[in-house]
Amino acid sequence: MTPQYPDQIRGTTIRWTWTEGPVTGTTHEHDFNEDGTVVWRAMNGPSEGHTEQEKQYAAEKVAEEVYMVSYLGASGYTLTVALNFGDSTMVGFASNEKGWYPGKGTFEVVK
């Protein structure tokens, strides 16, 4: 299956702030590039300033104003998040071969 990059996601920068889960209180900014790569950076918290470029993301519209976004990080974690553009809330899951970690939060489109 070829990844999709809906216009609601592609070419944007979205700031995620986690309110529940293992990184509660942490904000991450994601640049969803036109070429299908994603660059994320920790804006605060224990990893503040850390940034990575991941090889590929996928995004799909799943309902009116709701998009799923997923990518596999170099760290071995897969992050999958549903972004509700109607109320700027998100719910997602980080997982690897050792664990599965749910989280919730809010987001804003920065660019």
User: Unreliable runs, pLDDT <50, ≥5 residues?
Assistant: none
Count every beta strand, where a strand is a DSSP E run of 2 or more residues. 9
**Cross-sheet strand order for the largest sheet:** 4-3-2-1-9-8-7-6-5
How many alpha or pi helices? 0
Q: How many angstroms separate the termini?
A: 28 Å
Helicity, as a percent range: under 10%
| Cα gyration radius (Å) | 13 Å
Helix and strand element order: EEEEEEEEE
Average pLDDT number: 93
Main sheet record: 9 strands, antiparallel
Q: In what range is the share of β-strand residues?
A: over 45%
Task: Sum up the overall morphology in one term.
Answer: globular
List the helices and strands and how they pair.
Blueprint: E1 13-20, E2 27-32, E3 38-42, E4 51-54, E5 57-63, E6 66-72, E7 78-84, E8 89-95, E9 100-109
